[in-house]
Specification:
The complex is a heterodimer of chains A (768) and B (231). Chain A is mainly alpha-helical and 768 residues long. Chain A has 31 helices and eleven strands. In chain A, strand 10 and strand 11 form a beta hairpin. The longest helix of chain A is centred in the middle third of the chain and has 30 residues. Chain B has 231 residues and is mostly helical. Chain B is built from eleven helices and two strands; from the N terminus they run H-H-H-H-H-H-H-E-H-H-E-H-H. In chain B, helix 2 crosses helix 5 and helix 7 packs antiparallel against helix 10. The chains are: A mainly alpha (768), B mainly alpha (231). Chains A and B meet through helix 31 of A and helix 10 and helix 11 of B. Chain B: Neddylation of cullins play an essential role in the regulation of SCF-type complexes activity.
Chain lengths: 768, 231
């Protein structure tokens, strides 16, 4: 058929024709018996529009047709759709809505096809919305408008079983009634009732589709209402639960609710709502009630920690992890708990110490360190398991340990205790009999604990002292272990920390080597040979702790030994000076007692005392003192060990418990023991005071050096900043106190390293 | 002396005469100046040690008695400051001349009369700090001495600050005498005590902050003050 020669169609005429098509469409939609459009019918309708739009003016009816297109929808919706919705309620209304929407989409599809030609040129030319959009918007505007209802009215009319809605609805002003119905459905499902999820999904889809690519409808109209409703719902629930439930029970409920809400979204809400919805729930259930929940008296965080409820704690972590700043409170309570546990251990050790008043360095100290290690293991596991290795909790653990690990226990600092503990593990005859593996593990843990101790330099000094004793008196159980722990310390604290100690261990190896050379020398030079077994250990002064060397008058037998070694040493090296430390020596002497000869193993000083009795039967205190050239404090100790201790090798007159300067001594020929060889120990001097003094001195130098270093590079610096940087530089080894730093600064000012700035007395300058 | 007598006053205004008149004016003032100088030097000689030609402690004592001022009086210290004297107990000729010239005096009486004015001058804000620091340095008698012993410090601080800041000085002296940590005081600590008196409210010590760069000795002083029961 030819289109070209159609006669002009008038508007009314054309429109009437279109109306027939529209009416037919309506009947189809209403479900009335009606055949589908045939292709001819469709073509006719389309062509009519086409012609009416392509006719020459004034018969170009595009605008009018556009308007009438819209009008058709308006009419239909007002006359058919809205009334049908109006008479329905609740679920039925929703169903009707879905049905009407589906129909509407069909109507839009068909009508826009008929009127398609308008889309091609007219709307672009006039910048008008396309047909589809026009159609959809009609529905939205009319249906919405119609059903926008004052929420309060809605409630009054629909009160019935849904009284619990009243409180919340005061905050929502105007909401389409069908949204109210949806919200009610959701809440019903929350209460455990079954609802038609598919229906809700369809309703929600309307909001999405109506937005036509934009989500603002969904979000502004629908989603907001859902979020508010959700918040109100959970707010009410929370107020009840927080009072009635224990913390673990509450948390379980929260987990459950979050799970359900997530499911809800996947079933019938748009996926974009998930985050916002869960956030609302979390806010009402957790954020609002954080303190109340965590601090519940009989079931809160503290109690869970105390009762080791790891599962509940893990849940707590999972829940609070998602809310901002949620974990801070939990971490804080964790820290407090660990700190108090630690303090209990400290108290226990203190109590044990006062009970066993006399025993120094007793088992309670080992127990304390062991318990601290166990505590650390336990709560470290909490951090890795329950708290997912979260940095907040690592920090809490660290801070807790730093608090109680730096407390003094029964007069000993933690640095000393730790060093003693190591000594016990590493020496022969230590209190713990551990397997190889266990030893390495224990050493590893001890080194880890060192991190928490602020006086690391004090630990180093005590460790060094004890190490020297182990090495020199052959008390070290295993060389490998000694080296292993030094490696670990080096890794953790740096090379400077362990350099001297490593030097000490090496010295001994070298000394053994040197000794074999010495023995060779002796065998080759028979004349020089002193006639008794004699070994010398040469130590490098810088590595070893400082030892007092006193001017002991050596017994004749020993004098020759010393001389021989001096000669030998001269052949090896000419540039070193030897200082003899007799207090560290060991002698084996045969005591020819009446009953039997017993070999005595004792210190050189003790041996010197006994050898005097080879030439005299009885000696007074002053005799001995003069002959040996010793100080009182040393001599008293020596004589005590020989006359008043376990083995009475000398008899003291008068027979009192301790040695005084008026006593006299005789050789106890009647002495005997079941053993053939006995060790006569000399109780060690308390080194603690000296160690602390030495460390204090080193610290003064360290602070001086740090201040000078900082000022040299900065030239000018404010007081506070100088102090801060100083503390930081030194933090690896110890925590300097501000007074000490100020004192050193005063000193440096006197020595012209620093001066105060003329203008600002709080600022210092470096004087080159 | 004879120069002046050689000049004849002339009424001519010829250049040579004019210069002669200028010269005469100049010579008149220089005549006067020389006279002053003479008197100053005479005075110096009166007190100086005959063999060393320097005023030594004995000379100073004599000077003090002539001035009717005790030789431990702070005004002698002020005089030393004016002279910029280097060594405690001694005045060199240069110092003597410098001081007396600055004070514009050349006799004992004039010197005596000018002492109150000297005091006022020293107490002026712009001078006092300088005087205060000078006092400390003046007391360091040995070469390369940097610090002053506690006893001397107590005496000096009372002398120099006693009137102006009596309560602080009294407390500080008590503190210095009772503590064991410090046996000497250095210039920095000395200087900061003045600042302490000027800036810190006393005796409540409200605005004292140990975190600031006050010398430790003052931190200890404040701590001591806060611990002892109210006087």
């Amino acid at each position: 058929m030819t289109m070209n020669q159609m006669k002009t169609i008038e508007l009314d005429e054309g429109w009437n024709f279109m109306q027939t098509g529209i009416i037919k469409l309506k009947r189809i939609l209403e479900g009335n018996q009606e055949a589908q459009f045939s292709s001819e019918e469709y073509m006719m309708l389309y062509t009519t529009i086409y012609n009416m739009c392509t006719q020459k003016a004034p018969h170009d009816f595009s605008q009018q047709l556009y308007d009438k297109y819209k009008q058709s929808f308006d009419d239909y919706i007002s006359s058919m759709v809205v009334p049908s919705l109006r008479e329905k309620h609740d679920e039925f209304m929703l169903r009707e809505l879905v049905k009407r929407w589906t129909n509407h989409k069909v109507m839009v599809r068909w009508l826009s096809r008929f009127f398609h030609y308008l889309d091609r040129y007219f709307i672009a030319r006039r910048s008008l919305p396309p047909l589809k959009e026009v159609g959809l918007v009609c529905f939205r505007d009319l249906v919405y408008q119609e059903f926008k209802v004052n929420a309060r009215d809605a409630v009054i009319t629909q009160a019935r079983h849904f009284l619990f809605w009243c409180a919340y609805f005061s905050c929502i002003d105007v909401v389409p009634r069908f949204i109210l119905i949806v919200l009610r459905q959701i809440d019903q499902e929350r209460e455990g009732q079954l609802i038609d999820r598919a229906l809700l999904k369809n309703v929600v889809d309307i909001f999405v589709e109506i937005g036509m690519e934009q989500m603002d409808f969904y979000q502004n109209d629908f989603e907001d209402a859902v979020l508010n409703d959700t918040a109100a719902y959970y707010s009410r629930k929370a107020s009840n639960w927080i009072v009635e439930d224990s913390c673990p029970e509450y948390m379980l409920k929260v987990e459950e609710c979050l799970k359900k809400e997530k499911e809800r979204v996947s079933h019938y809400l748009h996926s974009s709502s998930e985050t916002k919805l869960l956030e609302k729930v979390q806010n009402e259930l957790l954020v609002v009630n954080t303190n109340q929940l965590l601090e519940k008296e009989h079931s809160g965080c503290r109690v869970l920690l105390r009762d080791e409820k790891v599962e509940d704690l893990s849940r707590m972590y999972r829940l609070f992890h998602k809310i901002p700043k949620g974990l801070e409170h939990v971490a804080n309570m964790f820290k407090q708990h660990v700190t108090s546990e630690g303090k209990i251990l400290v108290q226990q050790a203190e109590d044990a110490a006062t009970n066993k008043a006399e025993k120094a360095g007793g088992a309670h100290e080992q127990t304390f360190v062991r318990k601290v290690i166990e505590l650390h293991d336990k709560y470290f596991e909490y951090v890795t398991d329950c708290f997912s290795n979260n940095t907040l909790f690592h920090k809490a653990l660290k801070e807790a340990f730093e608090v109680f690990c730096n407390k003094t226990v029964a007069g000993s600092s933690s640095a000393e205790l730790l060093a003693s503990f190591c000594d016990d593990v590493l020496k022969k005859g230590g209190s713990e009999k551990l397997s190889e593996e266990a030893i390495e593990e224990t050493l590893d843990k001890v080194v880890k604990l060192l991190v928490y101790i602020s006086d690391k330099d004090l630990f180093a000094e005590f460790y060094r002292k004890k190490l020297s004793r182990r090495l020199l008196f052959d008390k070290s159980a295993n060389d490998d272990h000694e080296r292993v722990i030094l490696t670990k310390l080096k890794q953790q604290c740096g090379g400077q920390f362990t350099s001297k100690m490593e030097g000490m261990v090496t010295d001994l190896t070298l000394a053994k080597d040197q000794n074999s050379h010495f023995q060779e020398y002796l065998s080759q030079n028979q004349a020089a040979n002193p006639g008794m077994e004699f070994t010398v250990t040469v130590l490098t002064t810088g590595f070893w702790p400082s030892y007092k060397s006193s001017d002991l008058s050596l017994p004749a037998e020993m004098v020759k030994c010393v001389q021989v070694f001096k000669d030998f040493y001269q052949t090896r090296t000419k540039h070193r000076k030897l200082t003899w430390i007799y207090s560290l020596g060991t002698c084996h002497i045969n005591g020819k007692f009446e009953q039997k000869t017993i070999e005595l193993i004792l210190g050189t000083y003790q041996a010197a005392v006994l050898l005097l009795f080879n030439s005299s039967d009885k000696l007074s205190y002053s005799d001995i003192k003069t002959q040996l050239n010793l100080a009182d404090e040393d001599l008293v100790r020596l004589l005590q060990s020989l006359a008043c201790a376990k083995y009475k090798i000398l008899i003291k007159e008068p027979n009192t418990k301790s040695v005084s300067t008026n006593d006299s001594f005789t050789f106890n020929s009647k002495f005997t023991d079941k053993m053939r060889r006995i060790r006569v120990p000399l109780p060690p001097v308390d080194e603690r005071k000296k160690v602390v003094e030495d460390v204090d001195k080193d610290r003064r130098y360290a602070i001086d050096a740090a201040i000078v270093r900082i000022m040299k590079s900065r030239k000018v610096l404010g007081h506070q900043q100088l102090v801060m940087e100083c503390v930081e530089q030194l933090s690896k080894m110890f925590k300097p106190d501000f007074k000490a730093i100020k004192k050193r600064m005063e000193d440096l000012i006197t020595r012209d390293y620093l001066e105060r700035d003329k203008e600002n007395p709080n600022v210092f300058r470096y004087l080159a | 002396m004879t120069r002046a007598s050689k000049r004849k006053s002339d009424n001519h205004t010829s250049p040579s005469v004019k210069s002669a008149r200028v010269d005469s004016v100049r010579s008149a003032s220089s005549r006067a100046a020389t006279k002053v100088q003479e008197r100053v030097d005479e005075l110096y000689t009166k007190y100086a040690n005959k063999s060393s030609s320097i005023i030594d402690p004995d000379g100073i004592e004599a000077l003090c008695s002539d001035l009717q001022v005790d030789h431990t009086d702070v005004r002698i210290l002020m005089l030393a400051w004016k002279m910029k004297a280097q060594k405690q107990g001694y005045f060199t000729q240069d110092e003597w001349r410098r001081g007396l010239k600055a004070l514009k005096v050349d006799t004992i009486n004039k010197l005596k009369k000018t002492l109150p004015e000297l005091e006022r001058e020293v107490l002026k804000v712009e001078n006092f700090e300088d005087f205060y620091q000078f006092a400390f340095g003046y007391c360091l008698t040995e070469e390369k001495q940097k610090c002053l012993d506690i006893e001397s410090t107590c005496i000096l601080i009372d002398l120099v600050l006693g009137l102006k800041y009596q309560p602080q000085v009294d407390s500080f002296i008590k503190f210095l005498q009772s503590q064991r940590d410090y046996k000497v005081v250095n210039m920095d600590q000395w200087t900061n005590f003045l600042r302490f008196c000027q800036e810190i409210s006393f005796p409540d010590l409200e605005n004292y902050d140990t975190c600031e760069a006050w010398p430790l000795i003052l931190d200890n002083f404040v701590e001591w003050m806060k611990q002892k029961p109210n006087v």
